[in-house]
Amino acid sequence: MNKYISPYTPSRAEIDRRYTNIRNAMQSAGLDYLIVSGSEYTGFEGAVRYMCGFHILHRYAYVVVPLAGDPVAVFPREATWVGDHSATFIQKREFPAHCGEWIASFLKDKGARKVGVYGLEYIMTVRDYGALQKAGFDLIDFDIPFDYARAQKSEEEIASVRHSMAINKAGVLAVLGAYQEGMTEAQLMGVAEDLFASAGTARKTMDMICTGPNGSIQPQMIFPTGRQVRDTDAMVYGLEIAGEGGHWVEFSRVLAPKGVDATTQEMFTAYQEFHELAKAHMKAGNTAVDVHRACSKPFHDRGYRLGHVSGHSIGMTMIEMPRIGEGYDFVLPENMVCSMHPHIMTEDRTHSLYFQETYRVGKDGGEALSGVPIKIYTGGEKSF
C-alpha cells in the first residue's frame, strides 16, 4: 500500500526553524532539557505534533528536547500500535512501560538539572510528573515560554491555517444552509460534523452552541441536544477545528431566522465595532493587552460584562499563550494567529453574545481570515 504523504507535512527548513526558536527560549531560561507533553484531550495534542510530527490518536506522548543534540520521542508501550509512528520526523523513539520513569532515568544519565516542562499546568499525566519530581530535577513550568517561541507562524504554517479556515467556513455555511425549523440542535451540528470528518479533521473538532429564545442568546455554552430549534431562537454554532496540517482555527456567526431582539441587536453593533478595531489594532508591535483594551472599548462603553478575555493565540494547540487580555504584555509578531471571541453579557446576564473569528497579525493591521461579513444570518444561505 502506498503511504499517504500530507501536503502539510513540514519541510526540513520548517522543522529546523521550530527547533531553533524553542532552543533559543530554552537557552534564555537556562534549561538543560525540555519535556514537551501532548494528550488526546481535545486541543492539547498539538505541541507533540509540532515538535515531532506524530498525530496522537489515543493516550499521550512526549518529546524530550536537549539544548543541543538529538531529541527523543517517548510513547507509552501500550500505545505502540496506536497511531502512525512512522509519521514521526525525529529518529529516536522509545516505547517504555512507564514514560515518566524512563524520562527520569534518561535525564539522570545525561546529567540534567534544570528541566523545563511544556504541559505542566494541564497536560502531563500525574504519574509521569511524580516520577520526575522524585528524581530531584529542578522542574520549570515552560508553558508560556514555549507558546511565545512558536507564536509567529511560518508561511508553511499559515498555509495550513488557511486550509483549516476553508473547512471551518464550509461547516458553518453547511449549518446555515441546512437550517429548518424543527430540526434538533444535534441534527444541525451533525451537518457540520459530517463535512468536517469528510475533510480529514479526525478528532480535531471542539463544537458547542449558544442559544436562547425570542431573538436572544443566553450566556451558557452547551453541547447540542435533542431539543427542536424554533425560528424565533437565536443561536451560535461555535465551530473550532483543525484540518490535515493540525492548525486550529475558530469561526462562527449568529443564526437568527426571525432576527434578534433590541438588546441583542445593540450587543451585535458593539461586536461589529470590536472587529473593526481588531482589524486596526492587531498589527505587529502592539502588545496583547493593548489590543484587548482598544478592542473591548465598545463593550465597556455600553456597560457590558466580559465573560473572559478578548481572544488568544492559536496554533497546533487550540489555546496557546498569550491571551489577548489583561496581564499579557507580549509584543505581537507578524504572522501570529489569534482567535478573537469576546464573551459579552448584560449586567443581569439575561442576554449574551459570543462568536468567533480568527485573525492573522499583519504589519499594518489584522487580517480576518474568514473574509466573512460580521452580520446576522437567517438560515438557508448558500453562500456568505
Description:
This protein is an alpha+beta fold. It has 2 domains: 12-149, Creatine Amidinohydrolase, Chain A, domain 1 (3-Layer(aba) Sandwich), CATH 3.40.350.10; 155-368, Creatinase/methionine aminopeptidase superfamily (Creatine Amidinohydrolase), CATH 3.90.230. Helix content is 32%, strand content 20%. The chain contains 10 helices and 18 strands. The protein has helices at 12-29, 46-52, 99-109, 126-134, 143-149, 155-178, 185-198, 262-281, 288-295, 297-301, and strands at residues 33-39, 60-66, 72-74, 92-94, 114-118, 138-141, 208-212, 234-242, 248-251, 254-255, 305-306, 311-313, 320-324, 337-340, 344-345, 352-353, 357-361, 366-368. The strands form 4 sheets. A 6-stranded mixed β-sheet has the order 4-3-2-1-5-6, with helices on both faces. A hairpin with a 5-residue loop joins strand 8 and strand 9. The longest helix has 24 residues, at 155-178. The model has no long low-confidence stretch (mean pLDDT 96).
